[in-house]
Amino acid sequence: MIEPKTPANEQARIEAVQLLKLLDTPAEERFDRITRIAKHMFSVPIVLITLVDTNRQWFKSRQGLNEAQTPRSVSFCGHAINQQEPLIIPNALLDERFSDNPLVLDPPNIRFYAGCPISSPSGYAVGTLCLIDQEPKQFTDADIHMLKELALLIEHEFRLTTLVTLDELTGISNRRGFEMLAQHALAHCKREQQNACMVFIDLDNFKNINDTHGHNVGDKVLQDFARHLSNSLRASDIFARMGGDEFVVLFSNTNEAELEGLLTRLSQRIDAYNSAQESTLVLEYSLGHAEFTGEQSLAELITWADSHMYEHKKNKRDARR
Length: 321
What we know:
- The chain has ten helices and ten strands.
- A hairpin with a 5-residue loop joins strand 2 and strand 3.
- The chain is α+β, with helices and mostly antiparallel strands.
- A six-stranded antiparallel β-sheet has the order 3-2-1-6-5-4.
- The protein has two domains: about 160 residues, Beta-Lactamase, CATH 3.30.450; about 150 residues, Reverse transcriptase/Diguanylate cyclase domain (Alpha-Beta Plaits).
């Protein structure tokens, strides 16, 4: 077996996968519709929409397969994302890259494989639309053309996802994107009996920044804060710009005792940012948090964290008087 090579742009590619905000999300009809059509069109038992993550290939949509993911090291799709044209394997037993692959020797006993790379809106190959059969199969030029057309439909859905779930100014999730991801994360925490912490952040004196320095500078401050926030968090943390100068973070599998250390990273980055400013512009923020113990709704957590943030902001104002 030959393991798939790592693309030269792997770090940027993985970031593109993560920016889609689709990994480990529930099934969606807009993607399942495409895999059902492909299953019928090509008369194959298995059709998958895969996202190739760091160490796994995860299936956003799957027809004819129970597993939600498989290791990247044995994946056919890991090979497919290294080329622009579809990867066609008429008989995996006759291909030295795959003949002794466990996915060939054991279930699902792949013989035929056709995988078309699918790209993110930024142009990185993030996964595939792939067809699988337990019998060898020939694939014509007309088949390849139809497979590409279906892959374009998936890429169109990726673009729509980006438009409706990302904040245009900062490039991080907006309220809608956050709510989609956070609902799923809280459900997982509840199933696994894990704690989580919701943090609500509001920039201090942001109106004064706009009034004194102009809205272009204000926009840059929001972008800078979003970047520092992103760089301070773990891959599992979900964060967003809720609107205006308000941001929110959901720390999964985290209790209040662990939260302080995680927030220190952000504080240190903002301190360094302020020290590097040549003007009198100082970026400050207030925050509040609420702990999820398995019972609260997402809306309740946001409301409680927001309320605690305002208490923090008021205490800071009172202390300056």
